[in-house]
Structures are given as C-alpha cells and as structure tokens.
Amino acid sequence: MLNKILAQYPLTPHPEGGAYLESYRSTTQMGDRNISTAIYFLLLSHEFSSFHRIKSDEIWHFYLGGPLEIIEIAPDGTQSVTILGNEVDKGQRLQYVVKAGHWFGSRPLKNSLFSFVGCTVSPGFDFRDFELADYETLTQEYPQHTALIQSLTHKKS
User: Fold this and answer.
1) Is the pTM higher than 0.90?
2) SS3 at position 38
3) What are phi and psi of 23, to 5 degrees?
C-alpha cells in the first residue's frame, strides 16, 4: 500500500517533518488569502511532525495506514492527545480540528508502518502563518511539557 501511495502522490518533504502534496488551493480569495487549502500528508513509522502552530483552524482527515497521534498544547498550557484512525469503536477519530494558535505535533502510533492523512485549512494555509517551535522557547513557556516537547521537536538544544 505504501508503495502505491508514493507512486500516485508526488510528495515532497515538509519543514515540520514527513512529506506532503498540496491537493487543493481555492481560486476564491478574501483579500490576499485563498479561502481554503488541502494537503495529503504522510508520516512513516520513524518520523514525526514537529510542534508548530498556524493562524487558522486545521481539519485533519484519516485516510490509510496506521493510527496517528495528534498532540496539542493549548495557549493556557493544557495538553491533549487525539488519535486519528479508522477504529472508531476504540475512540479513534476519522476527522479532528486543531484550533488556531495551538501548538501541535503528530506521529504514527507504535506498530504503525505509516499514517497517510489529509489536512484542510480555512482561510487557506500560507507559510507566512506557520511557526515551527523552538525547543528552548517552548519549554520555557510550558516547562511542565519539557519531555513531550523534546520528543516532538527536530532541533533540540
């Protein structure tokens, strides 16, 4: 299945980790912003999406592979974990919304060879609104989550 995904979708590396392909960018705009965008996003078993935040809500959709863990830190410091997957009888979600301004990262659950998901953003995603977490800064702001932040940042001090 993974080989078929890689053959059908020409994914490129994403700055937060994993690989992606933009599948949709609306032609309708509000000001200088597209009203919506969508991507395919792939994380392999050994990869993770580093903590980052954006200025819009982001809807995650599960497609194929194993379950994906989405870890968030809200502005008030509350940490939450959501499992994106197709085993809804086990509490996994087929869709999930990460609220604008939340720090979040993701990784395939243990024993998942890969997670193939999608993300829809409205107003549309723009790298000007993307902030990759700095380990030192984020741990100073949320010291209670130091170990988690260390496990989900690519550049550790």
Assistant:
1) yes
2) strand
3) -105, -15
φ and ψ at residue 118, rounded to 5 degrees: -130, 155
Task: Tell me 93's DSSP state.
Answer: B
Q: What is the pLDDT of residues 98-153, one digit of tens each?
A: 999 999 999 999 999 999 999 999 999 999 999 999 999 999 999 999 999 999 99
What tokens were used for 56? 């819009």
Contact between 37 and 21 (Cβ < 8 Å): no
Question: Averaged over 71-78, what is the pLDDT?
Answer: 98
What whole-number distance in Å separates Cα of residue 15 and Cα of residue 47? 12
> What kind of fold does domain 2-151 have according to CATH?
Jelly Rolls (2.60.120)
Residue ranges of alpha helices (H) inside the chain are 2-8, 135-141, 146-151
Q: How far apart are the C-alpha atoms of 25 and 15, rounded to whole Å?
A: 19
Residue-level pLDDT at 156: 53
Reported as half-sphere exposure (CB side, CA atoms, 13 A), residue 16 has a value of: 22
What are the backbone angles phi and psi of residue 106, rounded to the nearest 5°? -150, 160
Distance CA(72)–CA(52), nearest Å, equals 10
